Amino acid sequence: MNNKKNKNKKGANNFLTVIAGVALGFVLVFAIISVDLISKMNLLPFGKDDPVNEPTGFVEVTESGEEKIAIDTLNELRGVNDLSTVLKSWAQNTTETSLMRSEDVINVLLMGVDASGTNADTIIIASLNKTQQKIYLTSVFRDSYTYINTKYGDKYAKINACYANGGADKLIETIQNDFKIKIDYYVSVNFESFRSIVDTFGGINLDVQEYEAREIQKEIGRECPFGENVHLDGEQALTFCRIRKCDVDADISRTRRQRQFINAIIDEAKNISINQISPLLNTVIKYVKTDCSVSEIISLGTQAISNKWYNYEIVSDAIPSDEHRLDYRGNAWVWIVDYPAAAKSLQETIYGQSNIELSTDRVSAVDIMRDSGNSGNAAP
Q: What pTM, to 2 d.p., does this model score?
């Protein structure tokens, strides 16, 4: 296939530098030195210049267990056999001190929002572990069935619906309730804006399989290249990150492509000079939303440069894993999730340890739905 890598190297690299920051949040301005330029960014809320003093280090657990999550909630629900009660109980069993955190870990929630601005169909937890010198990119399957505490009352839906029920804050709250980890910042980008950004900076080079190229061509009505390190424009790249009907495992492969895109961005961005970043931000700042304050951005940027975060090993994964989920077709197709087990696994990956203990005889949401034999009852 025709490879435009050399011809488009400069434009692609410029694009990759900026979007690498969008994708990872804490790398967003690792070379920005102009506060005047930063002040133009779409910071929500703007002016949160003094970080809130929050606990650091791992959650301390007393011998009496007073500060520990009441982990085995599902065991207390034996005989209930009700999915809604299980999900709500686990979600509400969350306090500020029960969220796993460490001063050596930064968690950034990455969101790709659809054109209508209602659903977050791309949900990735980007976790930087300074001790391990690793960046974990963990996709959260958008079809994961969950409890959402909305201003109108209890809601049970796919996790991507959180955005429509309270924006980024509601999605962060739900992620924290389900997986018991502290989200430090969020970064969101609109899918349509994403396409414009890619075109503005000359496209991106990715490995595209032949069947993926066929599906992209079907969606956009024109040819898409395939092979190793082929060049995609904005429409092709956006479609690459969104297609799923060509895969037997649907959203599982789609999240793989999304992480593949981010990996390519980070890898390419390593060779970009500091001087290239500031002028480019003027083009893309209107597309990015984040709750990271000016002072926090500068602090993170300084750390990124001095500690070479961009050279950290990237580890890609998705949750819930096969052992922690059950596909279920009720009023809609969803993943039923064993959130306590999934949360424990995620904590151990990101932090190297967990504050969740699971008894061997517990009953999970997956067990309840697998054993219920009640077809069509997944959506209360």
A: 0.74
Tokens of 336: 């039923």
Reported as a single tens digit per residue, the pLDDT across 131-175 is 999 989 899 998 899 999 999 999 999 998 998 899 999 999 999
**Sign of the CA dihedral 79, 81, 85, 88?**
positive
Q: How far is CA 322 from CA 6, 121, 281, 373, 375, in A?
A: 40, 20, 40, 20, 21
Query: Within 138-190, where are the H helices?
Result: 167-179
Q: pLDDT by residue (tens digit) across 165-187?
A: 999 999 999 999 999 999 999 88
Positive or negative: CA dihedral 186, 187, 190, 191: negative
Cα–Cα distance, 215 to 325 (Å, whole number) = 27
Q: Look up residue 158 and give its two tokens.
A: 């796919």
d(CA 103, CA 304): 15
- Determine the Cα–Cα distance for residues 355 and 181; give it in Å rounded to an integer: 10
Query: What percent of the chain is predicted at pLDDT more than 90?
Result: 30
**CA 140, CA 187: separation in Å to the nearest integer?**
15
CA 193 to chain CA centroid, Å, is 18
